[in-house]
# Entry
Amino acid sequence: MEPFIYDLSRPGRRGVDMPDPDVPLTPLPAEYLRDDLPLPEIGEPEVVRHYVRLSQRNYAVDKGFYPLGSCTMKYNPKINERMARLPGFALLHPLQDPATVQGAMQLMYELQQMLAEIAGFAAVSLQPAAGAHGELSGVLIMRAAQVARGQGHRHKILVPDSAHGTNPASTTMSGLTVIEIPSGADGNVDLEALKAQLDDQVVGLMITNPSTLGLFEQHIVEICRVVHEAGGFVYGDGANLNAIMGITRPGDLGIDVLHFNLHKTFSTPHGGGGPGSGPVGVSAELADFLPGPIVAQNAEGEYVWTMPARSIGRVKAFHGNFGMFVRAYTYIRMHGAEGLRRVSEDAVLNANYIQALLKQRGDYPIPHGDRFCMHELVAQGRIAGAEGVHTLDIAKRLIDYGFHPPTIYFPLIVPEALMIEPTETETKETLDAFVDALTAIAQEARTNPELLHTAPHTAPVRRLDEVRAARQPILARVPVGGR
Amino acid sequence: MAFKYDSNARYAKTHEWARIEGDLVVVGISDYAQDALSDVVFVELPAVGSTVSAGTAVAVVESVKAAEDVYSPVSGEVVAVNEKLADKPELVNADPYGEAWFFKVRPSNLSELDGLMDAAAYEAFLASQEH
# Structure
């Protein structure tokens, strides 16, 4: 195992010799000093080698196929990084006088406008720091709008069982009550079950469309209509926006609030490489409630910070994760409207190609394989003739074939789920190789299941003990030799 | 796969079991539920003394795969919870009908149990859910 950088520390080692100061020294006030902050002492080559070794053990989209369903692990174009590193963007301070950062504010203003146009909304706030943060902001917006309507007694948020797992969490964090709505046999929301819950207690519905089954909700217009008739709002989880750009717009379908995942759809770094960014867009009725400040343009054409009239307030320090705005802006400008539509078309085509190949070979059941999928598909790790093999074993074995496993055991409503999202940036050769690996694994499952139970065999670490990690978590570094 | 059933218990479609013991109703999750969840790593239980109503989520069971709500099959007052599950959530996998009971309710309306399934009906229900 690679040691922690703290364990590489030796007293007195350093990577940088600071020049002698050319101004009088002013000691830090004693109350700001602490002696319990042991920073590692280490030279530059050892720092570089430590992190390069770690990065080589990691798996990344720059290394190979990463079909993690619902996460849209698309390739992040390198031009994004170049733009984000331009000194005029990278070296700004968020407290600078607006007159000195008009270019950055113009970029934010235009990104607000572009996202609003892509999803069909009246206004956008870029503040939320990630998808679930955008959800929380959206739920607070719906709640504030209900209070403004004199409907502050409403407390129910309806969440279909095919929604993203963060939706119930966002609702609970905002103090509202989650009511789960089941899916019908066709994978759509059960309309009758939905209608049965629509009363004068409903703040709104949170819907993920396309759903986590990889299916477009065919009754979305009617769903929005009946929720509106009951006095509720409809929240759209924009995590699956990669399937529909330039084809349909959530705002046009009747959705009132939606968050964008810049780190999914708009190619900004994801996971540990983030940070994320989860702007939230709203209809005209809800525009006054957006978190702020947002960027507006005054009569003189200058960009100014403005707080929406009945804002739910600030949800993030300063102005959100600005570096991500530069990358997403670059991505949108590089593609243009036609290009974004092509992104979605190719994402859907790639997923359907995998679905068609898997159906043809017949090793993995696809519960809704009779429908076209959207940008992702949900198969099952239930291989006939290999009943002792589970989805987890298949996922771990895929690592040996050089692929990142798909999302597994989600959505919860599909037993042994394998949720596969190839994204638009993969070649046919990659998709073929991935399906070939799944086919080979199905054969191994029947002839040599032990190979799967003990996988992975070629990764830097073998099968991790997830159960023990969850039951007895060690959340802080234990120094060599213990505490 | 063959699952175990407690013939003295009644079962909800959401996979809880309820068993009358004296004037209390004991609640847990079924063998099918623990198998579907796989290794249970955490159980969150209701507060003793709290009032629960049938069909509402009152506990949470979390495994390495999923976190699921546990619904009370009966209305009434929670009079005891199984403290052992805090340190030994694996009991849910080992002994779902015995040592791994979740909570005990003093029922306010025992006839609610009539709406639940007996073991044979629950087994048939599970078979009908397989697809």
In short: Chain A touches chain B through nine residues (CB under 8 Å).
